[in-house]
Amino acid sequence: MKAIVLLSGGLDSSTTAAIAKSEGFDELYALTVNYGQRHLFELEAARRVGEAVGVKRHEFLNLDLACFGGSALTDPSIAVPHDRPADTMQDEIPDTYVPARNTIMLSLALAFAETVGAEDIFLGINHIDYSGYPDCRPEFLEAFETMANLATKASVEGRLKMKFHAPLLYLSKAQIVQRGMELGVDYSLTHTCYDPAEDGTSCGECDACRLRLEGFRQAGFTDPVPYLNGAKK
Fold first, then answer.
1. Residue-wise pLDDT tens digits, 86-136
2. Which of 153, 225, 144, 185 is nearest to 14 (CA)?
3. Residue 99: which CATH number?
4. Are 74 and 66 in contact (CB under 8 A)?
């Protein structure tokens, strides 16, 4: 079976790709977007993960959202938040939110799916352990699926019924790590940090690192990627 996987190279999307394959989607088409983020380490990670999963085709698309700015992930003049308490991460939308990013990426995945004849699209959004992003909510995904089946020729003609799969949506980060370990995901290939050192070493202090580290800790595993100042200890 065919499926599109949005593959960023991070922990969540890598686990999602493994889940898709475990559910019988043996013909995976990966889409990775260079949207003008601060660094390219996650793109390199996406390439490694795609090779490890054995995707049939992996498209790397350049789409410079940095020209709009408005996010700490695309505008170097905006600092990436560090050391935010976990219990406040969902209280406000942080500066790392990239305006309309998931809407844009899902639209691109939808175009890819219609082109290759796939009606299943997998993405690694999460509604439990997340940083307050509005486009990681189930109501967003439900609305987008409705739109997708109204907007594509293949759906209107009845050839495809677009379905969006977010298998991590209601899992904690610890549950995600546990599921990935069960599926044999090599997390040493992944990259999650928003604000890494020049050599790619994860900072251990941004929201993404803190959520990831806590997930590994709660799941009873050691995160295999390196961190500055031994943060994972």
1. 666 656 788 888 888 999 999 999 999 999 999 999 999 998 766 568 888
2. 185
3. 3.40.50.620
4. yes
